[in-house]
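Q: What structure does this chain adopt?
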Amino acid sequence: MTNNLNEYPNQNSPGNESGNAKVPSGGVDTSTNETHPQNEGKSAKDYVDATFEILRMTVIWLGWYLQWVWRNVIINDKFWVAAATITIAVATIYYTIYAKKQWKTLGEQLTAMQGQLNETHESFELQKQVTKATFGAEVDLDRNIMGVFRWEQGKQFWVDVHVINYGKKEARRVTIAAKFDFRPSAPIPSERIFNLGDSKLATQPIPLRPYESSKDFAYLRFVKDISPQEYPTDRSNRLYVWGTVFYLDFTGRSSQEFCQYAEGEAVFRIPPIGGPNGTAGYTSPYEPCPYTPN
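A:
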């Protein structure tokens, strides 16, 4: 093989006097990355200008906003009227809710207080009853005698209601309210209601002493017109006598209801009296009235 020396340029050819061939660096600029002061100064100015521009716009916007607030809020009567209206409305709603809660709490407290008062009243009444039963007066219908008189010529019946003091202390101002009638059944509870104003002062010793020691009694006469033509019907019914006794003792005003009956046949079995001053009449027996609902 013949070596062709002309394939490679002579390293000592003209133009390469140094005898050294330049070797390419691969296209990479190996020069140092120098900083340019002129570019740095321009960038800083841009930042400063931008900052001042932001501040300027902010001041302009703030000034506009303050002017708007001054025109539309500070010196605007409609705004303050609207604000006051809203404030009053909110306050009213809050107060209504608060008041409702307060009323509910107050209602619960009143209910609790009412319960306590009821308990106190019941306790007081119980204590009063115990005291009365132990130390007070107790005026009631005489369970052994009650006079019934029939005067045919005068077409009248009358009943003498006797009451005595079964208690331990004296009773004062004894009054009696009563009714009597021949009827097939006992009076209902609504018929048995009497008030103090319905009663009359009984004929009595003053005061009415306990019966055990004195044998004192009080009575009151009740008169009713009954014609002899009614006798057959009355004979088949019962004679009911009912009422209320009112009296005073050291515990205050007291009352006692009563209701008794006798068979009509037994009442008419006793002969009539000869005049308004007759004393012979039916006196016993009597039985307590059965309960009759309204």
